[in-house]
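Q: Fold this one first, please.
A: Sequence and structure below.
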Amino acid sequence: MKHKERYIIKSSKQKILGRTNDIKEALKIQDENKHEGAFIDDRKSPDKHRNSFIKK
C-alpha cells in the first residue's frame, strides 16, 4: 500500500507516528509525541533531512 501523504511524523527511533497532508495536524502529532523525539519528514522537501517547523 502506497501512502501519498506529504508529512510523515517519525520518532527518533524511526517509528512512524502518523501521516498527513495537513501541517497543523502534523504539528499537533509532533507536539503530542515530543517526549519520543518526534520530527516531521516533508516528502516534498528538496533535501531529505529532519525538518523542525516550529521549535518551542
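Q: Good. Now the second chain.
A: Here it is, same layout.
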Amino acid sequence: MSVKMVQGGVLLIGSLEWENEKSEDGKSGTGKYRDDWRNQWLDKGRMKVSGLPIRYARISGKTSEQVQAGGCKTDVGWETGTQRRGQYTMCLTKDAAPVGQAIFRPFGECVSGCHHLIKAAKALAGAERIPERGGPSGDSGKPVWGIVAIWVNPDSTHRDTLADWWSRYFGPLKHEGLGKLFPGVVDDKGVIALPWPKDSPLKEVDFCLCTPTVPSDGEWNAEKVAAASKAAFKNGKGRYFRYTYECGIRTADDDAIINALKAFNADQEIMPSLDGGVPPGPPS
C-alpha cells in the first residue's frame, strides 16, 4: 500500500476544538489562529472518541485562589493587568477514569510523507502556542508545559513507517524524562502510551496527533473548577467549561462541576446548555 494512503487527523480536547476570534482569548489572537488552523488543516467531519482518561487538571492563568495566596485580593489576573482567564483546562492523565470523550477530526487530505507529517505537527504546535516545534522546550530552558504527541493505531499497516517519520521530527529534541511528566500517557519519544480505542471510529485511522499538557500541582475537585469559572467570569472569561461541554467533549466529573456551578449561583453565561436550547460552542 502506498504511503500516500496514510489516514490521520487530530484529537481535539478543549479549546482547540471551539476557540475562535469571538471567544475567550480571541483578543490576543489565539482564537483566530486556531480557527484559521482548523479551516486550513482539518476536514469538516467530526467523530466522538470515548474511553479516554480526561480531567480538568491544568490551570490556565491564575485562579482567584492563587491570586489571594500571592497577597492580592483583586479579581483573577487583575494584579498583572492581563485579566487572564484563570480556569481549569483539560488534560490527558492516568489519574482520571477512562470514560472521557474527545473529538477526532481528520486532516483534509491524506498524509503523503515524512515532511507532510512534520509540517502538520508544526502547524498544530503553532495553534496551541507550544514552543520548540511542539516538543519539550529543552533548548530554551523553559519548563515543559505541553507537547505535540502522536498516537499510532497498532493495527495500521503503516505503524513502522509512522514511527520512523515521527523519530525524524521528535528525535532531535531534548526529551529525557518526558515520560515522567506524562506518566502512562506519553513516552520519552513523544508517542501516546494509552491503549488505542479499538471500539471507536478510529479503527480505520492510522494515527492521530494530540497535545497533552502537564497537570497543575495541588488538589483538584469539581468545586474548584466551578469556582474558578465563576471568578474568571468577572473578567469577561469563565466559559471554558461551557463551550467544551457543548462541543460534546466529556469527563467523568461533568455532572459534579455542573452541580457546583448551580450551587454557586453561577451566571447563565458560563452554564452549559443541557437540553440543546442553545447552539453548541461559542458564537462564530
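Q: Anything worth noting on the second one?
A: The two ends are 40 Å apart (CA to CA).
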